[in-house]
């Protein structure tokens, strides 16, 4: 899609997490900003991610409120991994009324409705009101759309499934240490995500133990970002200790994205054993690079992904064996979610 010639409007406020750390949502937002700007759309980054001391000051809730009310934007585009951002949705929804600015709510992870079910009635009411205020709700997969339809959020015509597929944007780079580690694997397995239970790294460790018992030599590289959950770390450590003979594993944190792509390209297989999911940027990246992908059936997956039963380490191990037999075929980059987002912007501005 060519750059819109009619975008003589104030910038879009893209509100969400930006690096550091280099995690999935931060990469999504950074790449989306780059692609939108390349198409002639002015975008202002509004970072609401949490930060450790010394890593910069993000927008607090009060600062975000002041920023949205005092500056003029053509669209408020809020990206959220799930419903833990209580307050930001409400702020953006209220600002959209006061400033008469369209609100696009972009939900990336697959646990939004499940998390809402555990909240108090008042918390759920606020979130549903915010969803009803959104001009468009962009989702990562059809399962999320089905869950959202069961909530009292209004017309489903405002809901659109756009996924998380984006162009790579950069060339993969080689990290010598990581590549040397992966070269020794048979298979070499890469997994990308946060050290949280939902990512299923403990299941992947158990699958590696099963592969070792079958005479294979798995090397597992976990590229982690964000804050680790203590329970997830304990579960991973415990799963590794279950192996009698052991197998090599490296956990690297906050790796530069170009080096992440380099590691994925060097892998035998990318594994995504998540217990819940929306859409996965790393899956699309691996497929673009021609690397076979194994993922749980906890969410809809792109064509070509080898599925395993969620929460089943034996099924995961078997899926990895099957994926290792798949020829490497880089996928030509074609239509991505950017075209859908641009069309969404034009629609809400025209409306």
Chart the SSEs and their pairings.
Layout: E1 12-16, H1 24-38, E2 43-47, H2 61-70, E3 75-80, H3 88-98, E4 103-107, H4 112-117, H5 121-133, E5 136-139, H6 142-149, E6 159-161, H7 176-183, E7 188-193, H8 201-213, E8 219-224, H9 230-241, E9 249-253, H10 257-266, E10 269-272, H11 281-289, E11 293-296, E12 306-308, H12 313-324, H13 337-350
Parallel strand pairs: 1-2, 1-3, 3-4, 4-5, 5-6, 7-8, 7-10, 8-9, 10-11, 11-12
Head-to-tail CA distance between termini? 21 Å
- Give the SSE string: EHEHEHEHHEHEHEHEHEHEHEEHH
Instruction: Assess the beta-strand content as a share of residues.
Output: 15-25%
Radius of gyration: 21 Å
* Overall pLDDT score: 89
Globally, the shape reads globular
CATH superfamily membership of the largest domain: Glycogen Phosphorylase B
Q: What are the segments in which pLDDT stays under 50 over at least 5 consecutive residues?
A: 52-56
Widest β-sheet, arrangement of strands: 2-1-3-4-5-6
Assign a percent range to the helix content: 40-55%
CATH architecture of the largest domain: 3-Layer(aba) Sandwich
Structural class label: alpha/beta
CATH class of the largest domain: Alpha Beta
Oligomerization status of the protein chains: single chain
CATH fold category name of the largest domain: Rossmann fold
Question: Count of DSSP E strands?
Answer: 12
How many discrete domains? Answer: 2
- Major β-sheet annotation: 6 strands, parallel
